[in-house]
Design a protein that fits this description.
The protein has one helix at residues 358-363, and strands spanning 4-24, 27-46, 51-70, 75-86, 91-103, 108-119, 135-147, 151-170, 176-196, 203-217, 233-243, 248-257, 261-268, 273-281, 285-294, 305-314, 324-327, 334-337, 344-353. By secondary structure, the chain is mainly β.
């Protein structure tokens, strides 16, 4: 089902300098610069065993400035500007960003954020067949949040506009490459989050839900379509309860995601363009998992070691999970991409010396 292979070795270097100046009260002004160096050496292998080598190197310099301005006890504004230059693309971009936060009564606040963000092509698609610029995303986010010592509620509306997305094809050697950046798209939706440590004694639970409507014309898509990584509905529930007498933390998590689209996109030589030869939608994703964390040293004074015994069971009901489908390069037959096993069981003991990392071990194995 795979007609080519890419092996790459990457080397990255980053340097950053920031100057921070207090303006009085909580207001502040910051400016600085970032430098990123990247070097990727790749070996591309065709289905017949023929190999091609390539190197993609870039020096990216970014200058930025931002300020936090508190107009009153309840209103704050953040203004920012970022400019970047990529030696690979040989172009500059300028990204303005602004956000407002207004504190309401009863420990809640409302905020709005706007910003432009730029991105270079992924190294696997370089060098490009044509002179290309940056892909651009413009974000608009409206958020409401209420926080107390035991509860947090947050809801967020967002809209993102995508411009100059990269379109891809294959060169004469069969390697994927960027052919232009005239793609476009959008994403819009809502996210809701609630965390509660009060309702259930000695328990902490949180619920999240998101709705996403997105379409993009990018990569080898023949037109605007929903990407195969985007689920329209997704939700999760996590519950943590500690039983003092047993020195044990009981955890349960449930995740859901509606089915995602999948496509077999092929090049039609007659029409001289990419077409969708087959498409469909995966089944809904469901995962109920349990874990138990035994803390033998909790409550002991002057303990120098901290241990956590963990038992974790993933997808305890053994529900079928299909992440995507892949297609044969010639036959066009499709095959589901599934986990190697329906369930996964982990048993381990985490031990730390000097620093209590019990909470880290528990959170990593929810």
């Amino acid at each position: 089902f795979k007609n080519f292979d890419i092996i790459s070795r990457q080397f990255f270097t980053q340097a950053r300098v920031v100057v921070d100046k207090k303006l009085g009260g909580l207001s502040a002004f910051r400016f600085g610069a970032d430098y990123f160096y990247s070097n990727e050496k790749s070996v591309f292998t065709q289905y017949d065993g023929t190999t091609y080598k390539g190197t993609v190197q870039d020096n990216l310099l970014a200058n930025f400035a931002e300020t936090d301005i508190y107009l009153s006890n309840n209103l704050a504004v953040k203004l920012g500007l970022r400019a970047e230059h990529s030696a690979l693309i040989e172009k500059w971009n300028i990204a303005p960003r602004v956000s407002f936060a207004y504190k309401l009564k009863h420990k809640d606040q409302i905020s709005f954020a706007y910003g432009d963000f730029y991105q270079k092509p992924e190294p696997e698609y370089l060098p490009a067949a044509n002179n290309v610029g940056y892909a651009k995303a413009t974000h608009y986010i409206l958020q409401y949040q209420k926080t107390t010592s035991l509860r947090t509620f947050r809801t967020e509306l967002f809209y993102k506009n995508y411009a100059h997305l990269y379109k891809t094809g294959f060169n004469n050697n069969g390697k994927p490459e960027v052919t232009g950046n005239n793609g476009n798209g959008y994403a819009r939706g809502i996210e809701i989050f609630l965390r509660d440590k009060k309702t259930i004694k000695n328990a902490d639970f949180w619920i999240s839900y998101s709705f996403l409507d997105t379409q993009r014309d990018f990569l080898n898509f023949p037109n605007r379509m929903t990407p195969n990584f985007a689920a329209k509905h997704s939700a999760s529930f996590v519950l943590k309860k500690f039983v003092t007498k047993l020195k044990t933390n009981f955890n349960m998590s449930y995740s859901f995601a509606s089915g995602r689209p999948y496509y077999n996109i092929v090049f039609d030589g007659v029409q001289n363009k990419y077409i969708v030869a087959d498409k469909g939608q995966t089944i809904n994703y469901n995962n109920l998992s349990l874990s138990f964390n035994y803390l033998p040293n909790i409550g002991k004074k002057d303990a120098k070691t901290f241990g956590v015994l963990v038992l974790s069971i993933n997808n305890i009901l053994g529900q079928k999970q299909v992440f995507n489908y892949e297609y044969g390069a010639i036959s066009g037959n499709k095959q589901a991409i599934v986990p190697p096993s329906k369930r996964f069981v982990f048993i381990g003991y985490f031990l730390s010396f000097g620093t209590d990392r019990t909470e880290d071990a528990i959170n990593l194995n929810l």
